[in-house]
Predict the structure.
Amino acid sequence: MRRVVTGWDEDGRAAILFDGEPPVQPEFPYASASELWISHSSPPDLRGRADTAAREWELLPPPGGTVCRIATYPPGAEVEEHSTETLDYIIVIAGQLTLLYGGEEITLAPGESVVQQGTPHGWANRGEEPCVIAAILIDAAGG
C-alpha cells in the first residue's frame, strides 16, 4: 500500500515528506492493518516533519489525538464485542463487514459506513472475499 504524506520542509515550503509503505503494518489472526497517520492533539501540529505513524501499534489513538488506518478482515474473521472511549468513523471500501451490536447483525457493503460512538460492538466478515475498511478513531476520553 502506498502512502503519500505532504507537509513543510525546513525552509517552510510545501513538500512530500513520505512516499511509500506505511511504517507500521501489523498482522493479527483476525485482521491486518496499515497505520496511515496519528495525531497527538486537536488541533494537530501541521508543521511537524516526523512520521507520527512510526510507533508501536496500539488500537487506540493517543490521549486527545486521532489515528487513521486501513484494515483488512479475511473471510471468517470475527472480533468479539468490545468498547473504547473513541468516536470511530468506519467506511467499507471492499467486501462486506458485519457490525455485531447488542445481539443484532448489520451487514455493510462498499461505500457504506458506521459512526461508532463508544458503544459495545464487534465485527465479522461473513462474506467470501476480504473486507477492506478505512477507520478513523478519535479519542473521546478527553486525554
Q: What stands out?
A: The longest strand covers residues 86-94. The mean pLDDT is 95. The chain has no helices and eleven strands. The two ends are 31 Å apart (CA to CA).
